């Protein structure tokens, strides 16, 4: 699929370049999204796979960057669906940031000539002209430049939005935890259960995982099971009884020690009875017949 770009060269404004809340990858991702936002209705619809090939990173890293930009308010993600299937993902630059930082993606007057065959500096204006213009923009005459934003954005699926908030609170798990499958079962269960029920259930489960030390391990339940037909979000998830377990261990240890002591006492008693039989001049009463002591009989000389 050909890329429809609003491409006039690589430009990163001072506001974006000096924004300490963004990583370098996030900054260049914003520039790339801007260059692909020529269509105000569709915005940027480049896939994660295409982004990954362009930047030389993994698709999971692209997903992390886009999620971070959305959480920071720089972009809006919209999904076009046919039934339950997502057929297109659209990215729009945030209108809020375009208004608050009008020079975020705006070229200065002058600067570099946009001639790819002869990329030389424009002697008229240049950076000095841009600084004067930027100060004017920031002081009084804020120009509303919303290129790449769509004033009539498609409606956000409320199920997607609330699931995103639940997903952020879900305990981290070692191993697989497919988000798409979890969303699918959540969407099904959400038809007959209120959002508050899932929120309170997830809060209980997260607290339980923290107290039992399961966070970040494979013992955290997969989200698709938690939100699934088993309705695990409705369970109580009581606090682990660590103290009771400790008492049980003490009792078991104490019982084992008592048994060892009893065996030692029996052995000592047996030795005492044997010593008594050797020292006694007459028969020694035992549990059975009388036992006569051993007596040395002198041998008659022949």
From TrEMBL:
Q: Where is this region: Disordered?
A: 238-262
Task: Give the superkingdom in one word.
Answer: Bacteria
Q: Where is the composition biased (Polar residues)?
A: 240-255
Q: Which Gene3D superfamilies match?
A: Winged helix-like DNA-binding domain superfamily/Winged helix DNA-binding domain
> What is the name of this protein?
Helix-turn-helix domain-containing protein
